[in-house]
TrEMBL record:
Protein name stated in the entry: EMI domain-containing protein
Bias type Polar residues, positions: 93-109
Highest taxon listed in the record's lineage: Eukaryota
Region (Disordered) residue spans: 93-115
């Protein structure tokens, strides 16, 4: 079944097989016991929470970048790397009033923001 996403968590339905017990009960003087037992295989369905595509971790807040980010960049969204301000300086384009921040997308796109 395709997961249904709500925020970072998705609801997923899965199933497993279990044995269901049938018993023929026999009662004598308020004492009850099973005289014949039979089993049948049943399907049990359960709903659970899983991380949505592109996220991982205990609280599903860690984005997944399929290709590793370059040194000095962090994976900030699924398949998107942005500069880590604590590890590299912003690149200046020559004008002291403008700073260029590169956002690298691990697909084929790249974005450039000019401040």
């Amino acid at each position: 079944m395709i997961p249904t996403c709500q925020g970072k968590f998705c609801t997923k339905r899965w199933h497993y097989y279990a044995a269901q017990n049938y018993c023929t009960w026999y009662t004598v003087a308020w004492v009850v016991w099973c005289t014949h037992t039979a089993y049948r295989r049943i399907v049990v369905y359960e709903l659970g929470k899983v991380c949505c595509p592109g996220f991982t971790g205990k609280d599903c807040s860690t984005p997944i970048c399929r290709k590793p980010c370059k040194t000095g960049y962090d994976c900030t969204s699924p398949d998107e790397c942005t500069p880590n301000p604590n590890s590299i300086a912003s690149v200046s384009n020559g004008n002291s009033n403008e700073t260029v921040n590169n956002i690298i997308t691990n697909s084929t796109e790249s974005k450039v923001e000019v401040n």
